[in-house]
């Protein structure tokens, strides 16, 4: 890439701690090569409006690593390939406006788009790559469910927040001989629930990879009671489901679709435990608390490494790729190897084995 190259960066999907570290590394890495960086506000759709594009300079990003969120905004809507457009009759139509996005990209003389996002945003990136846009993906999700990378930034912070919440619940649960059910994020994969549950000394951990039997959960809690342990902590991922059942959608009951807003499984589990054991049981949903606040040292460093690697890969013109942690290096992997894949928790991994050996039930 020649001197004076213009590159763009967008952040899409849900926010995650460490996004601003990626932005800083991209801006600083590009500046060292005499390139210009432009932030595309609020995801890919920002390329449809010149007002949504802003020049990013080193002075603007030098102190943003400790900030949560993203300084250029993000959205989990606005897919240019399926954009809702209101017509003159006031009706909403779904249109493909990707060609207009590409035309604007070329008109602005961008040489590369660094697209930071989760599975949905990376799929859009791959579709743009297939249409000829020079693009590099940066994996971002607190769920840690993107394939081909050991970890995604945002995960460590989310686990730390969940673990701290679990730690605090131990004292109140013990004081009242209660069962406390904590619902954490994790639509398809139970990494947050597993890591925070094990680190936080939970008694039960429920994850999407293992359908749970509520009777076995109740039996486990009753067994604890017989041994003088009169309280219990249950950690459940939002995408966990009962044996023979389906994930729960906030407001619509049990559903099978993948586009729902998950939530409610914690309350469901709490009610069933109260019914099955007779114990006072309460539920708590951590929700977006896991996304907010200052990123951990690990997530800041991971974001910086990913951002700097994306700039290096752009310089090598390795487009249609995603940066990935392949210890000890951050490397480039084809987006085609990532799309449509979910990195689930292996049910026989070392952390799972450890959890079972220290007495944690998975409801199976």
What is the strand arrangement across the widest sheet? 3-2-1-6-7-14-15
Radius of gyration: 22 Å
List segments where confidence is low: pLDDT < 50 over at least 5 consecutive residues: 252-258
Which oligomerization state do the chains in this entry correspond to?
single chain
Strand content: 15-25%
CATH architecture of the largest domain: 3-Layer(aba) Sandwich
Structure description:
The chain has 2 domains: 6-153 and 295-327, Rossmann fold, CATH 3.40.50; 157-291 and 346-357, Phosphofructokinase domain (Rossmann fold, 3-Layer(aba) Sandwich). It has 10 helices and 15 strands. 34% of the residues lie in helices and 20% in strands. It has helices at 19-31, 58-61, 98-107, 119-130, 155-176, 191-199, 214-226, 265-277, 297-315, 350-357, and strands at 6-11, 36-40, 53-56, 83-86, 92-95, 110-117, 135-139, 179-184, 204-206, 232-237, 248-249, 253-254, 281-285, 321-326, 329-334. It starts with 5 loop residues before the first strand and ends in a 7-residue tail after the last helix. The strands form 4 sheets. It has a 7-stranded mixed sheet with strand order 3-2-1-6-7-14-15, sandwiched between helices. Helix 1 (19-31) packs parallel to helix 9, helix 5 (155-176) packs across helix 6 (191-199) and helix 7 (214-226) crosses helix 8.
Could you outline the blueprint of secondary structure elements for this entry?
Layout lengths: L5 E6 L7 H13 L4 E5 L12 E4 L1 H4 L21 E4 L5 E4 L2 H10 L2 E8 L1 H12 L4 E5 L15 H22 L2 E6 L6 H9 L4 E3 L7 H13 L5 E6 L10 E2 L3 E2 L10 H13 L3 E5 L11 H19 L5 E6 L2 E6 L15 H8 L7
Parallel strand pairs: 1-2, 1-6, 6-7, 7-14, 8-10, 8-13, 9-10
Antiparallel strand pairs: 2-3, 4-5, 11-12, 14-15
Helix pairs in contact: 1-9, 5-6, 7-8
